[in-house]
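Problem statement: downstream parser choked on a complex file, so we are re-checking the raw output for the zinc ion run. The parser issue turned out to be on our end (a line-ending mismatch), but while we're here, posting the original submission so the record is complete.
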Amino acid sequence: MKKNLPDLEIPEDLLNKLIEHARQEYPLESCGILAGKEGKITKLYSMENTQKSSSCYLMAPEEQLRVFQEIEEEGLELSAIYHSHPHSPPFPSQRDVDSAFYPDSLILIISLMEKKVPQFGAFQIEKGKVEKKAIKVIGKDEKVS
Ligand SMILES: [Zn+2]
């Protein structure tokens, strides 16, 4: 790995939005972008899966570009790209590994295999190498500032 990316820290309310988005799109895959600083997520963009598929996702390039620009304008970083796995565990598929085009951001996967208890996995993927990262959920009452 070129650079060791920080673990992911996500506020509970944003995580709930992500779960809600995945459930709305079910049984299709949902996808989106998480922005923040040094792994600490402050913003979630739910995106459209133009593939309308339950086994893969693709964001509309122009929408993706617009979000990337907004993230840059706000002085944030592209922390992670998320998508859901409606029927499989929260681990990257071969396709996910092959299409990890942003090695400076993590891949976050939400699995709805157990519908009531979504499972998460965060990964740094670079040149076919996969490294699991920790996910810390920040509750409202623990939030500093
Ligand atoms: Zn996947």
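For whoever reads this later: The chain has a mean pLDDT of 94.
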